[in-house]
């Protein structure tokens, strides 16, 4: 069987950096001299594409091909959730409680203050 090395890639089993990706007359396959794995035999186009991913073509060992990012890395960032700011009751101005004669224009009575929220959001 005349097979030749078409590229190199790291071995997923032992981590050897220059494991062989070989082309035979039937398929593209993986062989690692580091651990002896005589590995996956890619026969379909999709399998061959997977085998070639991250492979350095033979003869250009110092120029690794950029590995496309796995789809899992493209997870959408979580949408920013605005933190709710609790409404703070504004203290009633002292002038509002004074009799109307203190100011020439009568001020409308302030709305009753909302019950003060205690503790939960006020760190
Ligand atoms: Zn290996």
Compact description:
The protein has 123 residues and is mainly beta.
Question: Any chance you could write out the topology, listing elements then pairs?
Answer:
Blueprint: E1 4-9, E2 19-23, E3 28-31, E4 38-42, H1 45-52, E5 56-57, H2 94-97
Antiparallel strand pairs: 1-2, 1-5, 2-3, 3-4
Zinc ion binds at residues 11, 13-14, 16, 19, 32, 34-35, 37.
- Order of secondary-structure elements: EEEEHEH
- Nearest-integer average pLDDT: 78
Strand order of the largest sheet: 4-3-2-1-5
**Roughly what percent helix?**
under 10%
Main pleated-sheet profile: 5 strands, antiparallel
> What structural class should be given to the helix and strand makeup?
mainly beta
What are the low-pLDDT stretches, counting only 5+ consecutive residues below 50?
none
Strand content: 15-25%
* Integer-rounded radius of gyration: 36 Å
Tell me which ligands are bound: zinc ion
Summed up, the helix count is 2
Shape: rod-shaped
How many runs of DSSP E, i.e. beta strands?
5
End-to-end CA span: 73 Å
Structure description:
The chain is mainly beta and 123 residues long. It has a domain at 4-59. 10% of the residues lie in helices and 18% in strands. The protein has 2 helices and 5 strands, in the order E-E-E-E-H-E-H. Strands 4-3-2-1-5 form a 5-stranded antiparallel beta sheet. A hairpin with a 6-residue loop joins strand 3 and strand 4. The longest helix is centred in the middle third of the chain and has 8 residues, at 45-52. The protein is rod-shaped and about 110 Å long. The N and C termini lie far apart (73 Å). The relative contact order is 0.12. Zinc ion is lined by residues 11, 13-14, 16, 19, 32, 34-35, 37.
